[in-house]
Design brief:
This protein is mainly α and 120 residues long. Helix content is 81%, strand content 0%. It has five helices and no strands. α4 runs antiparallel to α5. The radius of gyration is 15 Å and the shape is globular.
Length: 120
């Protein structure tokens, strides 16, 4: 497998993960259910931002699925590093420990994508 193929493969796999992890946040109703499962209070402003986030991430994951180009995967890898930073910030602020699962997954996908990009 060539390095570009590895970038595409890991980029697509990360896109599938993002799609699955975020699809529940695309509507206020499903986001409310997901947030209740995570132990987060779903106020209207919170649900608005959760659905905006969910919609953007789902659309971004579809774009990376269809065009897993190194540039897009690089941008996504930087985004994963930033998401990880915000998860750590929220955890340090006393938010739900359920975020540890999302943090671990972001770190994993960021690492495998970065590894594929560096080997390119």
């Amino acid at each position: 497998m060539t390095s570009d193929q590895s970038v595409r493969r890991w980029g697509r796999a990360g896109a599938v993960y993002d799609f699955v992890a975020s699809i529940a946040f695309v509507t206020p109703w499903t986001a409310g259910l997901a947030m209740n499962l995570l132990g987060v209070n779903g106020t209207t402003p919170t649900l608005l931002f959760a659905t905006l986030f969910g919609t953007v991430v789902v659309m971004w994951s579809i774009a990376r699925w269809y065009r897993p180009e190194p540039l897009l995967i690089s941008i996504d890898t930087v985004g994963r590093a930033l998401f990880s930073l915000w998860f750590v910030w929220a955890l340090l602020d006393g938010q739900t420990k359920a975020l540890l699962v999302f943090l671990a997954l972001e770190l994993f996908w960021g690492a495998v994508q970065l590894r594929a990009l560096v080997r390119r």
